[in-house]
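Data card: per-record layout.
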Amino acid sequence: SHDPPHVILERRHMLTCGPQAVSATREGEAGFTLIELLVAMLVGMVVLGALFTIVDVTLHQTTRTFSRVDSTQAARMALETIEGELHSACVVSGVTPIQAQSSDANLVFLTAYGNAASPTAVEHQITFSSATGTLIDSTYAATGGNSPNWTFSTTASTTRTLLSNVAQSASTPIFQYFDYEQPTNSSGVAYTDSGGNTYMMLLDGASAVPGTSTIPTADPLSTPLSTGDAQAAAEVLITLVAKPSGGSNEQTNLPDAADTVTDSVVLRLTPAANHVASGATFGPCQ
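The structure for this 286-residue chain is written out next.
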């Protein structure tokens, strides 16, 4: 070649460096196609949806557990309080524990403190309010009279809420009262023991006739209780629906968090004989 030396060097530079520069530029422009981007977005949405579903189910189950435990514990404490008070309802001989005018939503009974020779009587009224969803325990002090004919104040000495966010269980009353009765079969014939003695039971729908698997239909006393029925009432059955109180991690409107609870208290000092025989007694506080 007849070109000057500096021209030859310039041409060699163009031949060796030019293609590399073009290749580097093309590699810098590489990336995802539109289809690849859409597929990646779709997969991400599916994964996020699954995660959100798991979190939602977990939170719901946790909330339900907290709510159910709260409602159950609150109901248990309220029933234990009522049960403890009723166990002190047999004040002295001749005093009827359950008072007349007790009803489906208002349990009226007597308790006492002090010694047996000179007890201080207190009247309790445990009232269920469907309007406020509360179970209230009010006490009334004795103002005069002597055992068993005390008189009580019309103004409550103390008032406390035993349970809130409580409801009635369907058509079952909050309070039911039972006396001892003769259970009969489908033909109306009374059950008897081997000696021909007629059985006597509290027909609360929970106990079978002795020696059989037959559970008689519940037969609660009519309410409000008359004086005669109150004197014979030997059992109180309490049935209610407890709901969450709305504490931390709880919801008060979860239908599966409500808990139906029931408790019964037999007002006897000793168990009654299960059949009519000489010396058998079937009233309360015997």
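Known properties of this structure: The mean pLDDT is 82. The first strand starts at residue 106 and ends at 113.

See the next section for split statistics.
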